[in-house]
Design goal:
Blueprint: H1 17-29, H2 44-49, E1 59-63, H3 70-84, E2 90-96, H4 101-116, H5 123-131, H6 140-146, H7 148-157, E3 164-168, H8 176-187, E4 192-198, H9 214-232, E5 236-239, H10 261-265, E6 269-278, E7 281-294, E8 301-308, E9 313-314
Parallel strand pairs: 1-5, 1-6, 2-3, 2-4, 4-5
Antiparallel strand pairs: 6-7, 7-8, 8-9
Helix pairs in contact: 4-7, 6-7, 8-9
């Protein structure tokens, strides 16, 4: 009697190339083409080097020293993706371990205000307007009536607010399994989904009976995010912290990311953000974007992007006018590596 072979739940026996070919043919005939289309981030230079944008089943890590706009990039890219998907078939989700949902909403108002108004909002503007008394019932409506730029920004957010999801990551509960559930929830509603995680080293991992060093935790999360990208057929972009030694240098590089070999091996793209240096002086208004690993296109490419720090925005967004109507062009020619 032949022994019955049983695989763990979720696994299949090896498939012949014929079976895979039939599935591929069925996908094309059914119009299931989402996995073949890159998803533009709205950062034109970056999308060009990635072959059109983020590719399904890929993992991108975003690194750099503090204050270079990594969270700004993540939120703005998610905003760009949601705003461009007017067919309601694409959604972006930001899981942020650093900030709450309402605070991120404030940052979105500031970002959008730089698109819709020549006078962009700052966080101080919002705080002052919220604290004003005698302008009617407190709430969002009073804020919008107080600040014209906020009202225009809110009107833009309304256009995509059902396609942009934001959640505060819990330091104990938001595990890889929870991220898996989030993706299942979103993929059941939208054919195309992009997940952003800010940041990788904050995702908790529990391994009872196993000594879990920081490096081992980071390796587990990095490999887990890549596996989630493959399992759900979605792109995932995650902010990654640099180790203490890497932060001491003039420039944080891909190999400086905290976590060892897995962090260097697993991602398909590594995007590093560093302050721009000119004549030995740090220029806080420009950030150098460096593509230091890229399985999707060229590697070793640098380009500069102006950062409007007080408005929580880089100086351009795909499909909209420049974020600063009086500014120069959004992107700059590639600059040579030092």
């Amino acid at each position: 009697m032949t022994e019955r072979l049983v695989l763990p739940a979720g696994l299949e026996f090896p498939r012949t190339l014929l079976d895979v070919s039939l599935e591929f043919d069925a996908h094309i005939k059914a119009g299931k083409l989402a996995n073949y289309r890159p998803i533009p981030t709205g950062f034109d230079d970056l999308d060009g080097y990635l072959g059109g944008g983020l590719v399904p089943e890929s993992l991108m890590l975003v690194g750099g020293p503090p204050g270079t706009g990594k969270t700004i990039f993540v939120l703005q890219a998610a905003r760009n993706i949601a705003a461009a998907a007017r067919d309601n078939r694409t959604a972006a989700c930001v899981v942020c371990f650093e900030h709450g949902e309402v605070y991120l909403y404030h940052r979105l108002l500031c970002m959008e205000s730089t698109i819709s108004s020549n006078i962009g909002l700052t966080m101080d503007d919002i705080r002052r307007a919220v604290l004003i008394r005698g302008i009617g019932e407190p709430g969002l409506e009073s804020l919008l009536n107080t600040l014209c730029a906020a009202k225009e920004a809110w009107a833009r957010i309304v256009r995509y607010w059902e396609r942009l999801f934001i959640v505060k990551g819990h330091p104990i509960k938001t595990t890889l399994n929870v991220l898996d559930i989030y993706l299942t929830y979103l993929c059941n509603q939208f054919p195309t989904v992009v997940l952003f995680v800010d940041y990788l080293q904050k995702v908790p991992v529990f391994s009872p009976g196993i000594e879990l060093t920081p490096e081992r935790q980071i390796r587990t999360v990095t490999e887990g995010l890549k596996n989630l990208a493959l399992a759900h057929g979605v792109p995932i972009a995650a902010v990654a912290a640099a180790d203490s030694q890497g932060l001491k240098g003039d420039r944080v590089r891909f190999e400086d990311l905290w976590g060892g070999s897995s962090v260097n091996y697993e991602p398909d793209v590594a995007l590093m953000l560093n302050p721009c240096e000119e004549s030995g002086q740090r220029n806080s208004t420009e950030v150098v974007f460096s593509i230091e690993k890229n399985r999707l296109g060229p590697t070793g490419v640098d380009f500069r992007v102006p950062l409007l720090g007080q408005h929580f925005a880089f100086q351009f967004a795909r499909g909209d006018k420049r974020l600063d109507a009086n500014s120069r062009e959004s992107s700059f020619p590639c600059v040579p590596r030092r």
